[in-house]
Structures are given as structure tokens and as C-alpha cells.
Amino acid sequence: MTPLDRTTTLARMQEVMGPLPPPSPGVKASVRTLLSEHFPAYTRHKITYEPEPGDPVPAWLLVPHTATTRAALCLHSTQRSGKDEVAGMGSRFSRHTAKELAERGYLCLAPDYPNFGEYYLDPYARGYLSASMKGIVNHRAAVDLLLAQPGIRHLAAVGHSLGGHNALFIAAFDPRIHAAVTSCGFTAFAKYYGGNLKGWSHQGYMPRIASHYALDPRRMPFDFPDVLAAIAPRALFVNAPLHDDNFDVTGVRDCLAATSSLFPPNRLQAVFPDCPHDFPTEARSAAWSFLDSVLR
């Protein structure tokens, strides 16, 4: 399993996801603040921003009360509540990644993915060939927005499950992201449900996996070792539970074995908690310590 070079990987990802359009200027000017809520360590602003004209993306912006140089793009999992989950709402505390990082002093932005939370959009009606590529476009604009904030110099992408692979996708395409944290976000395609890629092919992901590649890992132009290699030599933290029914841990280990030599010392860390599809306390603690160490 020899990974492709980054240029080839990004080209092949676009064969599956559709082409990456050029950036849209004026993202910072498009921001609208809808409400603000104050907490002991940070203020949480509900905002919208426009990655493309006429396409307001709802998001939470968590601003710590102390000055910081570090920011995190925090991406939610497959939960109807979308951005609210990572911003600290709901009872699944293991998903409150933006809240925890804001309490740690990070500026955090948590946007809705298409058709989650308050963001209702048909990417295909806008000319996209996948929701995954629309997510990359939206997250690239989120990076623009974070880096436009005063003092921000170090940036991470963080996510669990749906957010876990979206964190990898935006980190692969956008070199301004210095570190990625992926929880339950991937496995080698051949070990995803025994090689049946149907779960990757619906309208919320990449329909071409069915229409062009017959749900067959052997026909896919890219695999996750290529995505990890496209992030190297930047920093990467992987949470891969031993009993994750979605993303087989042995396939995660295969991807890491194929790419570990591409990361400098202390720039790749993986944990394998004895739990199902989750981001437990010990794994999150290790992930945040990892970010603290690499985002200096």
C-alpha cells in the first residue's frame, strides 16, 4: 500500500468528488452575527458566512476571553443538530470538541455541513458532483475566516465520524491547516464493511463511488493512505477505537503503517481506545495535549 504523492492524490480525489472551484473573495465581509452568548471562558457567537455569494453557512464562533494564536475548525458528526453538537449543546459530552478547545484557549469555528443543523442546501443544484466537495469549499472559507481573526497563526481541523473524514479532506486540500485530529473518521476502503463502499456513495458524500466505480475499492482512484500522505509532514492525531463498527481498526492500522515514515518525529500520534464508535475522554485529552504541543 504505497501512497500517492500529494498532487496526484488531490487530482484523483477530484475525479471522485468533482473539481475544486477557485476561492470566493470577500468571506470576512460576508459574516453576519445573529446572537452572542457569554460563558466563563469564552463567548459563543452564532454567525453565518458565505463561501459563495448567496450561500450563507450557519456556524458557531467561540472566542476565548484570553488572547490566542491558535484556532480550530471543529466539524460535527452525523447528528441532526449539526454544529450545536460540537459547540457544547446536547448530552453527548464526547462530541463537545469546540467547547472543550475554547475552554482551553482556542478560537473555534463550528459550521453546519450541508443538510445538517440549520443549513439546508442541495449541492448538486449548485453544480457540485458531491456533498464532500461542497464541504471542502465551505471549510476552506472557514479557514479564511479563522485566519482573518487578529493574532491567529496556528490552525487545526478537528472532527469525529463525518467530521473526522471532513477534517482529513480539508487538511489534504488546504496546506494552511497545521494539524488535523480525526476521530472514527476513516479506514482503508477494502476494509470498510468488507469492501462494500455503499455508505460512501449516497448524496451526503460522493455518488460517483457508485456511478463511476461500482462501489469497488479496487477501482477507486484514491484511498486513505493517500489522504494521510497528503497531510504529511504536518501533524496528525488519529483516534481509532478497537470496536468501531463503521471504520475497521485493522484498516486504520494499515493506513498508518503505509504513511508513518512520512511524518516527522512527534507529528503523528494514534490511540486505540477499547470502546465502540466514540471519542472518549482519555482520547480527547491526548488529542488536545497533542495540539498544544504542535501548534506553538
Can you tell me about this structure?
The protein has helices at 6-17, 83-86, 97-103, 131-147, 162-173, 208-211, 224-231, 249-259, 281-294; strands at residues 32-38, 42-49, 57-64, 70-75, 107-111, 154-160, 179-183, 235-239, 268-271. It contains 9 helices and 9 strands. Helix 4 packs across helix 5. With 296 residues, the protein is of the alpha/beta class. The longest helix has 17 residues, at 131-147.
Give a topology summary:
Layout: H1 6-17, E1 32-38, E2 42-49, E3 57-64, E4 70-75, H2 83-86, H3 97-103, E5 107-111, H4 131-147, E6 154-160, H5 162-173, E7 179-183, H6 208-211, H7 224-231, E8 235-239, H8 249-259, E9 268-271, H9 281-294
Parallel strand pairs: 4-5, 4-6, 6-7, 7-8, 8-9
Antiparallel strand pairs: 1-2, 2-3, 3-5
Keywords:
296 residues; alpha/beta; 9-stranded mixed β-sheet; 9 helices; 9 strands; 30% helix; globular
What is the N-to-C succession of helices and strands? HEEEEHHEHEHEHHEHEH
Q: What count of helical segments does DSSP give?
A: 9
Query: Which residues form runs of ≥5 with pLDDT under 50?
Result: none
Helical/strand content category: alpha/beta
Q: Portion of residues in helices?
A: 25-40%
Q: What is the count of β-strands?
A: 9
Overall 3D shape = globular
Major beta sheet summary: 9 strands, mixed
Strand order of the largest sheet: 1-2-3-5-4-6-7-8-9
Radius of gyration: 18 Å
Q: What proportion of the residues form beta strands (DSSP E)?
A: 15-25%
Distance between the termini: 33 Å
Q: Averaged pLDDT, please? A: 97
